[in-house]
Amino acid sequence: MRTNPRLFLAMLLAVLGPAxxxxxxxxxxxxxxxxxxxxxxxxxxxxxxxxxxxRTVRLNLGLAHxxxxxxxxxxxxxxxxxxxxxxxxxxxxxxxxxGSSANLSGSYEFADQGADxxxxxxxxxxxxxxxxxxxxxxxxxxxxxGCSTSFAGxxxxxxxxxxxxxxxxxxxxxxxxxxxxxSSAVLSxxxxxxxxxxxxxxxxxxxxxxxxxxxxxxxxxTSYVLVRNTGGGGSGxxxxxxxxxxxxxxxxxxxxxxxxxxDYFLSGDWDGDGIDDxxxxxxxxxxxxxxxxxxxxxxxxxxxxxxxGDDPTHVGxxDGDGxxxxxxxxxxxASGNPSFTRILPSRGGAERILTTGENGSFAxxxxxxxxDGIADMAIQANAGSGVASFRIFDGRNGxxxxxxxxxxxxxxxIVGNHSGGMPADITTARSVSGQIQWTTxxxxxxxxxxxTFGASASDYHLAGxxDGDGIDDYGTWRPSATAGASxxxxxxxxxxxxxxxxxxxxxGDYPVANVRRH
Length: 518
What we know:
3 domains; Jelly Rolls
């Protein structure tokens, strides 16, 4: 039986209802939205009276505009501490270079529970007034847009000093011809939260999307990221150098200090805004994930999880809520002892411990190997006679769901999705005659032709979607003692006959994308 979309939306709004205890603040400076103007209109909300951290926020907007694909709306907390794209260029992706032609007319609420705006666009000439989830911005030529995002992840836990003051909503029209206005705006702020990820986000309503791993700037493509010890020694401060990947090799470069030289360097979307966050993990009796959320980079987040000897490079979304979970792989204490994947859910609650493999095996986790939208764990082990075995463990419950032989036990495992299917694949790399040979086994069990790319003696192996087509590319970073000669080399899946070459970094740097090599 097919559900009537209008009836579904009406029922959804009625069931969800308003949040208890929220305070409402009317926005000022409503009016016409300037056509084809990136500055747009700024609506302001004067918020006061909060004496404890907040839990989340939501917006109710009176909007009238033809061609919703022209618009982008961004909510910013006082002093620019935190921000979130509420919606941006809906429908703008690989299939449509101009976004959705659906119109807006009425009152629209945006909150952490609601309908999937991008799905509704496909069924209506005018978007029905209802409650919708916030979503990542559309980027032409990529699969970035339409990923459900989180108000609570971006704003939850903000202290009173960061809540009381002037909030702004910037709504801009980024294309010509179509026009409209914002006639009303109400910001609802819900008090009582003291944990950044504690919200009612429903994982069953996330919508379908593809995010580029290690995209630190929201372009829908993996960024070019290097880290450098700028403080000297194992306890010296580390500077991150990030070149935004805008589809060219001349994207803007930024830098920031995060972590020390002895840390692990990581990435994951902990705040649920559709953009990866730079992070480090620091070993100790109580290990620490130290995260620089993209929604609030001036307010680092620390999550205590793991202990010395753990492997923290398997971070992923193991509960399907659209946000990374702090995850470590703990090898068995001795030969034959079981190994464990220990997951601290982003939504709060008790640590989940999955038995995944045993001492002596290698893990490659944090990515969806089963196609259910939840991160899983792949374990590589020596099957004997020069053959490697792989077992796939379900990230929800640790059940083994697949077992096959592939490659050799000395091969590196490169975590990613290099074939483009719904579940991720298995890719291995080895040295052949001084070059790197990459081989991918897709989710259907088909071994794809081997690809020779990169120099095995000098190059770091990289995984990431550098061309924004939703498929990970084979890549390397080659350091050089000659100034200016270190380079990223990417073989894009969208055009395998070409190579993207980007001079970047210096000898002694480390490319963060290499963290997915095991």
